[in-house]
Design brief:
homodimer, alpha+beta, NE0471 N-terminal domain-like, Double-stranded beta-helix, 2 domains, six-stranded mixed β-sheet, four-stranded antiparallel β-sheet, 26% helix, 28% strand, GBBH-like_N_sf (chains A, B), dioxygenase (chains A, B), AlphaKG_dependent_hydroxylases (chains A, B), oxidoreductase (chains A, B)
Amino acid sequence: MPSVTVAPAGDYLSLSLGASRLRFHAIWLRDNAPDPETRAEANGQRLIALRDIPAETIIAEASLGGGGLWLRFMPENKTVTYDLNWLQNHAYDRDITADPGWLSGGVETWDAALMVSVPTGDFAALEAGGTALDDWLGAMTRYGFGKIVNGPVEDGALFRVVDLFGHVRETNYGRHFEVRTEVNPTNLAFTGLGLQAHTDNPYRDPVPTIQVLYCLESSAAGGENMVVDGFAAALRLKAENEAYFNVLAEHCARFEYAGEANVCLTSRRPMIELAPDGELIGVRFNNRSLAAVQDVPFEKMALYYAAYRRLGEIIDDTAMEVTFRLNPGEAFVVDNTRVLHARKGYSGEGTRWLQGCYADKDGLRSAYDARRRQALVEAAE
Amino acid sequence: MPSVTVAPAGDYLSLSLGASRLRFHAIWLRDNAPDPETRAEANGQRLIALRDIPAETIIAEASLGGGGLWLRFMPENKTVTYDLNWLQNHAYDRDITADPGWLSGGVETWDAALMVSVPTGDFAALEAGGTALDDWLGAMTRYGFGKIVNGPVEDGALFRVVDLFGHVRETNYGRHFEVRTEVNPTNLAFTGLGLQAHTDNPYRDPVPTIQVLYCLESSAAGGENMVVDGFAAALRLKAENEAYFNVLAEHCARFEYAGEANVCLTSRRPMIELAPDGELIGVRFNNRSLAAVQDVPFEKMALYYAAYRRLGEIIDDTAMEVTFRLNPGEAFVVDNTRVLHARKGYSGEGTRWLQGCYADKDGLRSAYDARRRQALVEAAE
């Protein structure tokens, strides 16, 4: 049986729900009130600012009933009812300390063992929507990586991949770029060289958070693609040597690309990026565009380089990599803040032609979450 | 007279240049070697990875001459010459501790006093390039804000503003969005309501880092625009109460927008964002889309709300704001990771029509830096 107690000063309340006792502050409750004067019913946006809520707001009265918590706030003399499930789902009276490098719920790290079950969607099924799309978007949010097969072998088909979840992020490379051997390459990606696993464009800030690579021709020998989970690599580094993990997280690297006229892209960001509370939120790793690191003190630079070297060795470890060959009409998509991709060297004989473009993962997560929300609504009807 | 000494173990050297003594590690020097086997001459990208450089690399020999530092590395037995100016500019043997909230060189905070000298560019002069564009791009990087005047009163003219420095970031709102009163608005921006100063789309991750607002019609009463330097506001908060600054920087807020079908955008990022070494790199402030904050422990939530309230009061202080009225053919551009913008309420009589779009500031900085680099090359010729 739920019960509620208001603190003597009225500045917070305690809600007992089953075994849990959850405290909520008056100001937090008032700011998150779900009534139509506080939140626009149509679009869910808050209609008032904190300046519209008195700083001395207290809970004057509280009662429970019908799955709801009814409150009267003073000095506004405003009454609001909260859904108990909503309160339980949004509670903050909990132990929220976690080790640096913790992962958001729903994120799952992987290694070469994923090779036998690469998340793969059929192009037509994905375009039709339904569970095929749900599953593929879900795999993208969980693993940061997914393949698409049986697509058209057609210039620009990669844009139809982006249409599944978002919008193209145009850059100085254009709305899309062609990946094939060039005679005077502006970028080493446009040669037949093998490339170490890397994230793209770390010299951009913000980096493009999604990359799509779509195969149109593939008769050259070699050129296999591989992907590595940067989160798995960073956490393995931490397990092996916490000082290595910390030095890469606590200092900014610098990246630069100025390989064409009118372009001079620079960034100053860490190789391992944590949220203020230690959530692992990004990995940047790219030997080609790492600039001179200047933000590590002399006393720590040897440690920094040892850590950078070890992270590279982990990334190069075949136990970490998922390798595959893209055939024409096949694509792969990566979360570029997390998953590194690489290409083996290929010969000049035959052809290899991929088209690539960037997009953003907030759009992908939004598409997935909106579809799940809609499914819940439909299930409830 | 410069001099160089190699440490007995060969793992670093000391370079005396005038009054400064700069130490550089062997591995750092080898990784940053400028020779054509290490760096591609055409595009500046590194051709090797750290795995190609022996971990036991030492400096076997060093000498100075002709403005350069000549080194021989073992075990590769590789000789490389470094430019002394380059070494001085990229030195890391320095005191790099700074108070949290430090600002990158070239960033200048501002308040209402900027009103008399708003950075403004003439549309045609900017499109012609030259110093007008240099000055305006420079002001954008320094202040995070600039106006443009005397532009065409023409649907889509805002894209010509983006063409000055980068590329449109398309979102669920389209390549651009119309800001005028709507009957059933999906977003409160499309009403006549006054809006508190805010950054746009904090529920997106990454947020769009540049916003352009371009005026096409303006005969309604009210609707003035104003901008506030979020960096100045955050630093004023810190000066007033360091605990307030810290609690907003050390905990993630949550933001959400789900005001239209198929959209459910959520983010978990702090209101005041610092780099790992304390550089102030971003501000997110938006009462409409702040979701329930869940990542602050119960013991700190009252402090968090007091800090959030005080930051809002500082942002609302007219001493912080630059106000102006956009006439047709005028636009303003803000760094959306730093500068908040607001609109005063306006009446339904007359019309007010703006077009808005997003872009990214790495492109803007790149355009500016590339132009400066080119100017240096031309000056040297």
